[in-house]
Write a structure and sequence with these properties.
Blueprint lengths: L8 H4 L1 H6 L6 H27 L24 H30 L5 H26 L4 H25 L7 E2 L3 H27 L16 H28 L4 H26 L4 H24 L1 E2 L12 H6 L3
Antiparallel strand pairs: 1-2
Helix pairs in contact: 3-4, 3-6, 3-10, 4-5, 5-6, 6-7, 6-10, 7-8, 7-10, 8-9, 9-10
């Protein structure tokens, strides 16, 4: 038996081995985190393209593309190429997540929080791949398709948190607003979550089944669930507007006001696309843009929640709260 001490360090702990030889800049850590976030958005949008082009069963099985081929063949046509291309993007996503993990582990000082978030991304990618496989094996059952989108949204949440955290320090958190403002923000976030869930039901009951063959739809009235989706969207818009006004009245720090204002703009654009696609009988291009908008809305919601507190560098963690923090902390 080979003694553990004789095993090369790169084999025992490759991340520690690389971290000892590479010190990325903080800008590199942020770029790596953003790359993972960007790819998590891309994988959702390209997954939507698979669905909207009727290519959901372009590869008829999983993990292989067909019973006798690992990859798409010429006989599978365009649908096979589109579905297989989307599967290949999972490897690009995995590479981006790997870069984020390595950059966080190699940063000096070591960012333990970002490393943990990076590994959470890794497991989310693995879970999403399994759910995607189940979706194919169940021949695009609308409930597993909805679960696939929600699993992708969970990955999007983690990558958005990681990117935001990469732009902060690692000191003790300091709240910038009072408990009532935080409660309002969390109510907005919960309603936004319900909005996304309702959106998956609208899709599952709607005409875009994801394949040219007959695929069963969710057994709910599409018009009714669409109206519920619209009501939830208006609720999110009103709650976001209320949060922005409260932050303005209280003269809250600039970052939460800026994040809330940006979310409001994305919501208005998303709502406009939603109404246009409804009135024009769901053209594929607008549905795809609406899926992109859904990602941007959720990233915006996550960033609003995170902007209500700040994490300074640990060396400054004991510093006195800023004046604008003290003004809003009691409200």
């Amino acid at each position: 038996m080979v003694a553990v001490s004789k095993v090369p360090a790169v084999v025992r702990n490759p991340l520690a081995f690389l971290a000892a030889r590479w010190t990325p800049s903080q800008a590199t850590v942020r770029r790596a985190a953003f790359a993972a976030l960007l790819m998590s958005v891309v994988i959702v949008v390209t997954g939507g393209a698979v669905r909207l082009t009727g290519s959901g069963l372009g590869c008829e099985t999983w993990p292989k593309c067909s019973s006798d081929s690992l990859i798409a063949t010429r006989e599978m046509g365009l649908h096979g190429a589109i579905e297989f291309g989307n599967r290949m993007l999972t490897y690009v996503l995995s590479a981006a997540v790997g870069w984020a993990i390595l950059a966080a582990r190699s940063a000096k000082p070591w960012r333990h929080d970002l490393t943990r978030l990076g590994w959470a991304q890794f497991w989310a990618v693995m879970a999403n791949g399994i759910v995607g496989g189940i979706t194919v094996l169940t021949e695009l059952n609308p409930y597993t398709v909805a679960g696939h989108f929600l699993a992708a949204t969970a990955l999007l949440t983690i990558t958005a948190i990681t990117w935001h955290r990469s732009r902060e320090g690692n000191g003790a958190p300091r709240v910038l607003v009072g408990p009532r403002v935080r409660q309002l923000a969390w109510v907005m976030a919960v309603v936004a979550g319900l909005l996304i869930v309702a959106g998956t039901v609208v899709t599952g009951a709607g005409p875009h089944a994801g394949d040219s063959s007959e695929v069963p739809r969710m057994g709910v009235d599409w018009e009714t669930v669409t109206r519920l989706h619209a009501l939830l969207a208006w609720a999110v818009v009103l709650l976001t507007a209320a949060l922005w006004l409260v932050l303005r009245v209280l003269d809250a720090p600039a970052r939460p006001r800026r994040m809330t204002g940006a979310l409001m703009l994305v919501l208005l654009a998303q709502g406009g696309i939603g109404y246009v696609q409804y009135l024009t009988e769901l053209p594929e291009v607008l549905v795809g843009l609406h899926m992109l908008g859904s990602c941007l809305v959720w990233v915006g919601v996550v960033r609003v929640l995170l902007s209500l507190r700040e994490l300074p560098d640990s060396s400054a963690a004991g510093a006195a709260p800023r004046a604008d923090t003290a003004v809003t902390a009691a409200v």
